[in-house]
Amino acid sequence: MIYHSQHKKYFAMRRLNLNHLHTFSLVIAHGSFSAAAERLHLTQPAVSLQIRQLEDQLNLKLIERVGKRLKPTSAGTTLLEHIARIEAVVEDALLELSSHASGVAGKVAIGTGATACIHLLPPRCPPRVAVCISPPLLEDEFVAIFASSQQPIAAEMTPEHLCELPLVVFEAGSSTRLLINEWFLQAGIRVKPVMELGSIEAIKEMVAAGLGYSIVPRMAVAAVHHRRGLQVLQLVPGLSRTLGIALRQDKPVSKALRQVLDALHNLNATPP
């Protein structure tokens, strides 16, 4: 019997009408059916019916008359506390959904390396797409970086120039590290780094402190504030990689994702 009673209350809560809850809160706020009806642009019988249906659903008395005003019962007071939270949650949900409909917000998961994530994506992500394949997007050129206080041995850096100098490099196994190793191997040189790090920003800090040189994507030092304390030199022969987008063929393209894709496809057309 207890089980049956709990079940009835559970299904009653599932069928609750949001309009009825709002009507109930207005009746209590204004103290009468007529005032609530005027506010809702409904007839007084329509408001009374909504309250009666709500009470029938919950099998509880929600309103009582005290003098000339309608007041909530103990159960009605409890319901009012929940209505405030329910309306806040619904409002938040509608705001988020409206932003999806207008295509200005949403979550787009992007798997990418740290360098592109820090230096390439943020300037181009739509402002409310929370921060973030196909034909190639761009050629990502690599450069040599030294501490700005260090005297360069040449205007352009070859593998032969660099092989005897202390190298601060990306950790083994990363795609960037493999590219750098291959660049030296093409010249018949196998390098032994003095330091291996997983963060592009940590590498730049070590180089700026004079602990060695590194080879990094140009985008990581393109902005003035990103190359503070560093000097940037060209590599000869040149070293670059092609950045592209990998997207599942059956992946639905939301408006938020479409904005991100359009921004990325325009990388070659606009400077960072």
From TrEMBL:
InterPro entries: LysR_HTH_N, LysR_subst-bd, WH-like_DNA-bd_sf, WH_DNA-bd_sf. It comes from the Bacteria. It holds the Pfam family LysR_substrate. Transmembrane segments: none annotated. Gene3D superfamilies: 3.40.190.290, Winged helix-like DNA-binding domain superfamily/Winged helix DNA-binding domain. Keywords: DNA-binding, Transcription, Transcription regulation. GO terms for molecular function: DNA-binding transcription factor activity; transcription cis-regulatory region binding. CDD domains: PBP2_LTTR_substrate. The keyword DNA-binding applies. Belongs to the LysR transcriptional regulatory family. This is Regulatory protein, LysR:LysR, substrate-binding. It comes from Pseudomonas amygdali pv. dendropanacis. The lineage of its organism: Bacteria, Pseudomonadati, Pseudomonadota, Gammaproteobacteria, Pseudomonadales.
